[in-house]
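Run log, item B.
One chain of 536 residues. Sequence copied directly from the ordering sheet:
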Amino acid sequence: MQFDDFYESINPFGRYQKLKYFLICLTYMFPPIMVYTWSFTAATPSFHCQSSTDIAHHNYIPNESQCRQYQKQLSISECQRCFRWTNTSDSSDEPMQACTKFVFDRTYYQSTLVEEWMMVCNRTTLKSFAQIVFFFGYMVGSLVFGVLSDKFGRRPIMGVSFIVLTFAAFMCALAPNRRLGFEISYAFFVLGRFLLACATRGIALTGFVIGAEIVGPKQRLFTGIVIEYFFAGGELILLGFAYILRTWRVLNIALAILSIPFLFFYLILPESPRWLLSKGHYAHAERILRRIASENKKPFDADQYERLVAAEKKRKLSCPHVAHGLWSLLRSKVMIIIGINMSFQWFVQNLVFYGVSQNTGAWLSNPYVAFAAGAIVEIVAYCVVHLVLDRWGRKLPFCTFVFLFGIVAYLVVPIQTMMVTNSQAQITLMFIVNVVLKFLASGSYAIIYIYANELFPTQGRNTCMGICSMVARFGAIIGTLSNDLLARVWVHFPIVFFGTTSLLAVVFATICPETSNRPLPQTSEDVERIGLTWYD
């Protein structure tokens, strides 16, 4: 007897599961809040050199020929706002001087960390490094919390994650302090961002897995997509806070306070009965399953449960050396191929998703309207994914979204080279391209979570998802660096780079099997039986 067969008898999506799943969805709103807070607290407003004399600022702007002669590695706009020419003559052979003080526009922000620490021009790497450490924390948190949750359970790890998140959120809000000096403040802030990322991954990864494990096979698509609606909802909540609180420290403090009630979620969130059975905790699993049956007003068949336990014990006896966690990936050719392929797919999807998402502020002049447009596009993408996955499965929609992203990304080249610069037509087309890219990136990003979750076995699902997520952080880091550094060479260079990696990824995605309407695999042997597209 399979777990899903027994679970059907007590209603796999009754009152109990709906309530617990709603609570899990609420926790899933925190990852986007903590990730995208950076878009506002470390936003880069329009700026220019602060003149050292009373001469008008425009008299210090280097002309195009000066920029091409002395700073040809930079774009003209970057050169003109980061350098000034040293006298008022019109000569193009005068050396330029790097700006040390800047004037920031206050149309949309009262203060940001970029202004606080002057993280512009040659100090842009300070901003990039802080975000790289954040995604490195994502990577560490994915692996550590993934392994721990497979060993100690989903529920306690989520509880620990919220404790760490609340502590780190206050650390990020309070650590930057001029009395401590820049070096100490920056170090504490970066450490806080690292811990925040670790905790965020613990919450997101564990919550997503619990959401999939407390329901039956027919509800996995629903739970995998609806939780993403709450992810986008978290972005809108952040937007509301950021629009009202336009000072970076006040915004950080407000969001840290928002996390406090979630410290008590440990008391009401369930442990996964599927995980308990896979670990041999039959008595604990029975208590939870009886509670589920009671709240769903279904009878609990003790004899049927005993047969399920007997089947689980027989499975363990027939495979006495079943590998768990990481080792389950290394037991067969199929698991190794799926593990490597899924890790690469996650790498590309995070490169693309975070690369595009962190740049939504550049869509329009008003960053709040642009961010709201990005969140709405994301919700629309999740709705479309919700509609097509049941009809077309997982593999075909995923490959379609990724392939189309690569094609649309390359449209940037003719739009930028063949149209009049900054014309209304060019601006309109670029906005449309950015919206479509955000839509496609959001869709494929949502599908890869569901797809990977259904490919890995219960005994090592969180560990395998954690490894994929860990590798994915390198993608997020490279996406961040692309936006900060490649864009200094050509502002649209990152989009072309994202498109190239997407086209490469779709080739390898065709190897993986379809998982729609199949029971979740319990062991690596179950994955072996599923096989690959070209390997049986």
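Observations after the first pass:
- The radius of gyration is 25 Å.
- The chain has a mean pLDDT of 82.
Flagged for discussion on Thursday.
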